[in-house]
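Reopening this ticket.

The earlier resolution said the output was attached, but the attachment link was broken on my side. Pasting everything inline this time so it's all in one place.
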Amino acid sequence: FEENPDPKLGIVCTNMWVIGENISELSRPILIRLENGTVFNEALFGRLKDIGIQTALIRREVFDKVGGFDESFPRWIDHEFFIRASRYFFFYQIDEALVNWHAHTSGIASNKKNKFVAMKMLLAKYADDYNKPENKMLLAGFYYDIGHGLCSLGELKEGRSFLIKAIKKNPRHLNALTAFVVSFAPTIIYRLLHPM
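Inline output:
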């Protein structure tokens, strides 16, 4: 913030090491740099979801403008906040891992179903933005992610409904078409033929 006093610069973040029980991996959110403007549309479709809140320095003005965290979300609370912030403020990423995050099997991020509940909540909260004509292909991918995830969890009927939405937005979405056909098999077969 000291190097760039632009009041539109709202959030500076870094990469982080995600440390699990058996692996370590570098989480690298891909951001549009400060000089390219806001990243709202990219945020809608998940490009900011890998920013760990613990890696972010957030100006007070961001909270003043967009409010605090929406705690009604069962997961992605920070991601939803970043979506709101990205409508008005620039993000800047320091391309260095300055944080170690230890993933736990019992933490909020471990509940896979809640990920898809949160994605559906995002669709409802930002419906006007998601449904803009220029977002058609991106929305197809988002629908596919939800549908595929739900099918993988055994929620085949609801998963199929999102796969159909993906196909309607983009009839050439091969993953959605394949997942839809495979979703008529039992869940175990679905997971084997169309893994996450």
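Reporter confirms the inline version is readable. The two ends are 39 Å apart (CA to CA). The longest strand covers residues 90-102.
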